[in-house]
Amino acid sequence: MRIDVLTLFPEIFTHFEEWSIIGKIINKGLVTIRKINIRDFSEDKHKRVDDYPYGGGPGMIMKPEPIYSAIKEVKSDNSKVIYLSPQGKVLNQQLVNRLSKEEHLILLCGHYEGIDNRIIENYVDLEISIGDYVLTGGEIPAMVLIESIIRLLPGALGKESYKEESHFNGLLEYPQYTRPRVFNGLSVPEVLLSGNHQKIQEWRKYQSLKNTYLKRPDLLEKIQLTDEEMKILKKIKAEFHRK
User: Fold this and answer.
1) Rounded distance, CA 163 to CA 169, Å?
2) Arithmetic mean of pLDDT, 156-173
């Protein structure tokens, strides 16, 4: 996979690429991440990339010409151009799964009060938001999107360990424990020490459904549960209704 990030602040991504998992994925050759400075495409002698909004209003707007030129420089037939925007589709695991199958992503990071809408309407394939709040620029959302995607690439994490993580299958993950066996008088659940893999899997399924029911019940409305999972969920509801 190739990812081109169009940004006014490419230096922000330097340490991001050195993070443990991300650095390993890059070193394996599974992804190439390039930072493209939008200012390099400005024809203004001062490399200016913003201007006042037509119709008045606060702040400045990123001009269309440098952005268009930057997109044109890196775009190919298999590219998908994504604008990180608070007005976009909210990022979730299903969207991440779909984007991880793309060959080339172009991530456009806005700044100031946004970008000229002619770019969004004509040269952007998808707007993505990482939540219902506003940040100063698109760089941090771009990092969130990049990490969530590249960790799903075949060979990135090994043994596809992400398949048991929260949200991958629509449910939250079961609780995890490590040594010591007893910490401040609190013990690890005995079933995890039993060596009985079937019982452990049953416990994990139960805990995953319980976590989802107690913390994010809205997720249960979006997925199709198996008959077995429905029986477990019914038991969980009965247990907590008695309390």
Assistant:
1) 7
2) 72
Q: Are 208 and 174 in contact (CB under 8 A)?
A: yes
Give the residue from 145, 86, 150 showing the smallest Cα distance to 120: 86
Gap between the terminal Cα atoms of the chain: 50
Higher confidence at residue 167 or residue 223? Answer: 223
Query: In the structure, what pLDDT confidence band is assigned to residue 32 with cuts at 50, 70 and 90?
Result: very high
Cα distance between residue 137 and residue 84, in whole Å: 9
Q: Hunting for tokens 């650095």 — which residue is that?
A: 23
> How would residue 168 be classed by pLDDT, with cut points 50, 70 and 90?
confident
Give the phi and the psi of residue 87 in degrees, each rounded to 5: -95, 0
3-state secondary structure 82-148: EEEEEEEEECCHHHHHHHCCCCEEEEEECCCCCECHHHHHHHCCEEEECCCCCCCCCHHHHHHHHHH
Consecutive H or E run containing 201: helix 197-215
Q: Considering the chain, what is the average pLDDT of its residues?
A: 94
Q: Which of 8, 76, 85 is nearest to 48 (CA)?
A: 8
What's the pLDDT score for residue 236? 96
